[in-house]
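Dear support,

I submitted the protein below through the web form. The confirmation email said the job was done, but the results page showed an empty box. After a refresh the structure appeared. I'm attaching both so you can tell me whether what I see now is the final result or a partial one.
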Amino acid sequence: MSIRTGIVVVARTGATRRPGKMLADLAGVPLFDRLWHRVTAAQTSGVAALLATTHLKADDALIEVARRHGALGYRGSVDDVMARILGACRTFGIDFAVIVEGDELFCDPGHIRRLLEIGARGDTDFAGLVGAPIGAWVSGVSADAMERAIETRGADSSEAWRRYFQAQRGFAVQEINVGADLPAFHPGTRLTIDYEEDIQLAAEIFGAFPKGTVPSLEQVVRLLGERPALAKINAKRNEEYWGRLEQLTSSGATPMRKHPH
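What the results page shows now:
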């Protein structure tokens, strides 16, 4: 059986904490473009890359940017992230997708390729990273497994959707420990994009590299080690963020603060 793999970027303009963040300026380049450059750096022959956004008119702008990059676009549910991912996979015939959410700006192309290789084998429902900083938590999931999770989740929120697979409720799960590749990584490092301070940090990071560079996650982590003042830009947001996320994962799954994917 041939497994078709793909990369699905899940993003929208209507984020609650920082609306419009996907189009925010990062050292002269919009955030979505920065993210897309990282995604396409991971693409190999035969791997589809597409945007999964909402049907709201506000997200027309993201669709237009995706088209400018020659990307496919899917429009689905505003609130149900799991349904949006599944709809994108089914629409474009993707059996196993690496999911890159819009706030995972510092996803590493090498990690994406490793997840695609796992998915191509056809024996894994969910694959995630262990030891990566928040802001680089890419995951891989099969469309069939996502459909099963949707059928069994009940009325639970789908925002922290990875928890359905992390709890390993009948799913074939594989973890990749990438911590050894990041010797300078400090566990308190915050690279995700939720608040204005996160955008400020990201702009500083990209501004530190030559124009047109797609820095690896290791390069980013090393930069923060060399310039510790940068990490202080958004450090105060950590407790607020983790408190909210732990509420979402209170259904019994392993808390993501202790077991990040």
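Response: this is the final, complete result; the empty box was a page-load delay. The first strand starts at residue 5 and ends at 10.
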